[in-house]
Each structure stands twice: as structure tokens, then as C-alpha cells.
């Protein structure tokens, strides 16, 4: 598995894992950020004592754990105490009966303010500890003693808010390579783009392949995310066109800055064919995972065939990769910022770092307006349509390029996203599966009415050449 993390150094302590193994195997599947339903076998890849436990102070262990059979690697921060005070009861992982921690209680350290305070202290003082490296932007002061508070949100990672000033995201499922959340937001900060929040400090593992582990950014106090805002307006029967227009402008500004900061590439025929093929492959896999997609698959393939047959050269660049209303924060003053540039969490990291036409993010937002409208009772299709138009108009105004002028590409990305969402919902929120399925039904109907590519347009199954691996979405 190319994406697997390898650690073989002295920090991997087998006796520690032996004592924690049954506790972690029971606890992991109950965590929102854990991708599997079971954790049948664990390997401790690295363990670092950030603070040794004594009778008077809690201990803090940083651990990287590989889970079979998926070979996913997770980052854990384990607290160690003699016993847990009542306020930490929800953090309990278990009582250790053997090995070096026998008689101690192990728990989720991110819920313990004493330990999350220590983590911030590490970020305030850049440096190395075993295989961990703590880094700082060198400019932004981080005051000591900011009160830590775990973020209470449905999320793929775990975040701590410090004194309403900073937010620290601790990545959970980690893969080798620079995490785009850090990479892209640093690039945007260097470009002076104010639509993203500049990384202030971060930490990574350097013992083996580099791994991004955590990211500290300014916290937007009083901000509302686009999803909550949209649902609020919908429930009041309010129009959201102005905000959708502003969101389109914000997206375009981010795209312009990313295209300036990082390499772009022209997608020729072979790339486009390969892009369409990757969408078809994902659809085929999704049909296996979500049988409800099966009846629509032939029609959905038509949308991807149409893309493969369209030889228009297009520009690809780094994009957000998982843009939706929940990733957009509006400050009390009304300015929109975009967060979470990690890409779709379930995709391998090298895939998430590939350049794509900006239409990919645009399609993500179009899907999001549809989601919001579908969540509303009664369903509000006109509200969604108005938002989608306003968003594209706002995008066109700032980018000078209207995404609606390339409907084949936009439809293909929207279809690809809806397929991804069907898998996501089937796994995480089965009650919501009907939302992407309704879109799938619409997209399939539209695709059925599309002209079939003429025989001369037929896409080669295997592109003769792909100029560079990086350029292949
Ligand atoms: N800088 C910030 N300011 C205010 N709230 C934030 C900020 N960053 C994240 N949040 C809140 O935290 C939630 C989770 O953040 P996100 O980066 O999307 O995490 P994940 O990748 O784990 O899903 C967001 O939906 C948002 O409500
Ligand atoms: O925010 P994450 O990076 O964890 O993204 C994942 O979860 C999202 C849901 O929280 C999911 O987004 C889907 O649901 C949203 C409403 O909750 C909707 O606005 C989006 O359009 C829809 O895709 C996202 O796909 C997933 O990667």
C-alpha cells in the first residue's frame, strides 16, 4: 500500500501497545474520526512521551497507530492518570492492567485542559522532541495561558479552541506527505489572500516519511458557517442570493491566488480522458458500496463519456478539493473565509494534491446549495437554483470566467461529487443518503437526454502518454 506510514525506530514500544491493545480496539470504533467499524489488529508505529506521568501530574503520550486490515495510521494523544476526575469521565479509554502503565487510567488527552495547554506550550516553543517537530510562522505571537476548549462539532479530525484566539486541528487519519490543509493555506497566506486563515504554528513527524500532524490558526470568534446560515435563511423563507454571490467571489479569489502561487497545467485530451476514467472508476466502486446507485450507473457513465469526448484544453490547478457550505465561515462583519483545505478525507493524499480544473470546487458548492434545499421542509428547489446561479455569477465576476460556460465539465464534477456523497452518507449518515440519491436521479435523467458521443469522438481507454504524474487528476 503506497500510502502506508512506516516507522521502525526505538519509539515504537511493543510492551506499551500490548498493555493498551484491548482498550484501544474497543475505543477506536466509537470515535467519529475513525474510518472503520472495527479495529481488529493494531501496531504502534511511534510513541513519544510529551510529559511523563507522575503521582502529581498527568502524563501525555503522543502515538501513531496503524490499524489493520486497512493499514490506516491514526494519531492519538493519550492522557495517563492514576484515576480520572469526574469532569474527565467522558474521556475514558480504560484502566490498564498490565505492562508499563499497569494500574493507570488512559484517556483522550484532548479533553484535558492541562494537557491541551501543554500542547500549546510546545507550539509556542518551536523545536524537536524524538521524531516530532514543532514549528511556528516566526511572526504571530502566541500568548501563554490561553484557555483551551475542545470543539464540540461533527468533524473528521479533532480541534481545540484556545481562548477564542486560535484553533488547533489535530489530524486523526494521517498519511505521508505534506497535508494540503497546511500547504495550501500557507501558499494563500504568502499570496496575501484574505479568504483563508494563515497557519500560525504546526507540528509534524519527521521520523521516517514526513507526516503533518497538527495545525494552529486564528479562530474567527462569532463566525457562522455557511451551512448553518443557509439553513437558517431557508427556514425563514429568506433569499440567500447575496451570500451565494459573495461565496462565488470568495471561491474565485482563492482560485486566482492558488493558480498564482502553485503550478498549473493544461489538461490535454489524454488527461481529460484519464480524468473521466477516474470518475467512472469511482462510480463503479461506489456502486459496489452503495447498491442504490446501481440503476443510475449507465446514465451517469454518459456524463463521464461526454467529458472524455470533449477535447477542449482546460487549465488545472490546486483547488480546495472538498468545498461545501460548512467549510465557509462568515465573520460578524460579513466577510467570508474558507477553511479545511485537506480535500476529501477518504481519498489518498497524493490524489488530493493533484491539480484539477476549478470547476471541481464550484461543483462542490453547487451540490451544497442542493443539500441545504433538500434538508428543508418543504424541499426548496427554486431556492437552490437561485443560489447556484448567484454563486456562479459571483465567481464569474471575480474570476472573469463563468463556470457555466463549460457545462460538460461542471456536470461531470457534480456527478462525481454526488457519487462521493452517496458513499459518504451511506457510511456516516445513512438517514441522509436520499439527499445525494435525489441529485443522482436528476443528474442521471439529464445525462440520459444528452447527445451520445459520436463514434469518432470515442475516448481511448488508455491514454498514450501522460506528460507528468503530477498533472494527472
Ligand atoms: N478558524 C476557525 N474559526 C472559527 N471556527 C472554525 C475555524 N476553523 C474551524 N472552525 C469550526 O470547526 C469546524 C471543524 O473544522 P474543520 O477544519 O472543517 O475540521 P475537520 O477537517 O475535522 O472536519 C468547522 O466546521 C467550523 O465550525
Ligand atoms: O467537512 P468534512 O471535511 O468532514 O467533509 C465531509 O463531511 C461533510 C459533512 O459534514 C460532507 O458534506 C456533505 O454534507 C454537507 C452538509 O452536512 C453538504 O453541505 C455538502 O455539500 C455535502 O457534500 C463532505 O462531503 C465530506 O467530505
From TrEMBL:
Signal peptide start-end = none
Can you tell which superkingdom this protein's organism belongs to?
A: Bacteria
Q: Does the record bear Translocase in its keywords?
A: no
Q: Which biological pathway? A: Glycan biosynthesis; glycogen biosynthesis
All copies of the Maltokinase N-terminal cap domain together span 27-112
Reactions catalysed: D-maltose + ATP = alpha-maltose 1-phosphate + ADP + H(+)
Disordered: where is this region? 444-473
Q: What is its EC number?
A: 2.7.1.175
- Where are stretches of biased composition, namely Polar residues? 463-473
* Subunit structure, interactors included: Monomer.
> What protein name does the entry list?
Maltokinase
Amino acid at each position: 500500500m503506497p500510502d502506508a506510514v512506516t516507522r521502525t525506530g526505538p519509539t515504537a514500544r511493543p510492551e506499551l501497545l500490548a498493555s493498551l491493545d484491548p482498550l484501544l480496539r474497543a475505543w477506536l470504533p466509537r470515535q467519529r474520526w475513525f474510518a472503520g467499524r472495527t479495529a481488529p489488529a493494531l501496531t504502534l508505529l511511534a510513541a513519544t512521551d510529551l510529559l511523563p506521568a507522575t503521582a502529581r501530574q498527568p502524563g501525555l503520550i503522543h502515538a501513531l497507530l496503524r490499524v489493520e486490515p486497512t493499514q490506516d495510521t491514526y494519531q492519538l494523544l493519550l492522557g495517563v492518570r492514576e484515576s480520572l476526575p469526574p469532569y474527565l469521565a467522558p474521556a475514558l479509554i480504560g484502566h490498564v492492567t498490565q505492562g508499563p502503565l499497569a494500574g493507570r487510567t488512559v484517556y483522550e488527552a484532548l479533553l484535558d485542559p492541562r494537557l491541551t495547554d501543554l500542547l500549546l506550550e510546545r507550539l509556542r516553543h518551536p523545536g524537536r522532541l524524538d521524531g516530532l517537530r514543532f514549528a511556528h510562522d516566526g511572526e504571530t505571537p502566541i500568548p501563554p495561558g490561553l484557555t483551551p476548549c475542545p470543539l464540540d462539532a461533527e468533524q473528521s479530525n479533532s480541534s481545540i479552541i484556545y481562548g477564542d484566539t486560535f484553533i488547533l486541528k489535530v489530524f486523526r487519519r494521517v498519511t505521508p506527505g505534506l497535508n494540503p490543509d497546511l500547504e495550501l493555506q500557507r501558499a494563500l497566506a504568502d499570496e496575501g489572500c484574505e479568504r483563508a486563515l494563515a497557519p500560525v504554528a504546526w507540528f509534524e513527524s519527521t521520523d521516517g516519511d514526513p507526516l503533518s500532524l497538527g495545525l494552529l490558526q486564528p479562530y474567527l470568534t462569532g463566525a457562522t458557517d455557511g451551512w448553518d446560515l443557509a439553513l437558517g435563511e431557508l427556514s425563514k423563507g429568506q433569499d440567500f442570493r447575496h451570500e451565494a454571490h459573495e461565496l462565488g467571489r470568495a471561491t474565485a479569489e482563492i482560485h486566482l491566488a492558488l493558480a498564482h502561487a502553485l503550478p498549473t497545467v493544461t489538461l490535454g485530451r489524454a488527461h481529460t480522458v484519464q480524468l473521466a476514467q477516474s470518475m467512472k472508476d469511482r462510480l463503479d466502486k461506489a456502486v459496489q458500496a452503495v447498491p442504490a446507485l446501481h440503476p443510475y450507473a449507465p446514465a451517469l457513465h454518459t456524463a463521464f463519456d461526454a467529458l472524455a469526448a470533449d477535447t477542449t484544453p482546460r487549465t488545472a490547478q490546486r483547488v480546495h478539493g472538498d468545498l461545501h457550505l460548512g467549510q465557509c465561515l462568515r465573520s460578524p462583519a460579513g466577510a467570508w473565509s474558507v477553511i479545511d483545505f485537506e480535500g476529501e478525507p477518504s481519498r489518498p493524499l497524493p490524489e488530493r494534491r493533484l491539480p484539477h480544473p476549478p470547476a471541481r470546487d464550484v461543483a462542490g458548492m453547487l451540490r451544497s446549495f442542493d443539500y441545504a434545499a433538500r434538508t428543508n421542509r418543504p424541499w426548496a428547489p427554486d431556492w437552490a437554483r437561485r443560489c447556484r446561479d448567484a454563486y456562479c455569477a459571483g465567481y464569474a465576476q471575480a474570476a472573469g470566467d463563468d463556470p457555466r460556460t463549460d457545462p460538460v465539465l461542471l456536470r461531470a464534477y457534480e456527478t462525481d461529487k454526488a457519487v462521493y456523497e452517496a458513499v459518504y452518507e451511506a457510511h456516516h449518515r445513512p438517514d441522509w443518503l436520499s439527499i445525494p440519491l435525489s441529485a443522482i436521479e436528476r443528474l442521471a435523467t439529464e445525462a440520459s437526454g444528452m447527445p451520445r458521443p459520436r463514434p469518432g469522438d470515442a475516448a481511448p481507454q488508455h491514454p498514450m502518454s501522460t506528460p507528468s504524474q503530477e498533472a494527472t487528476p
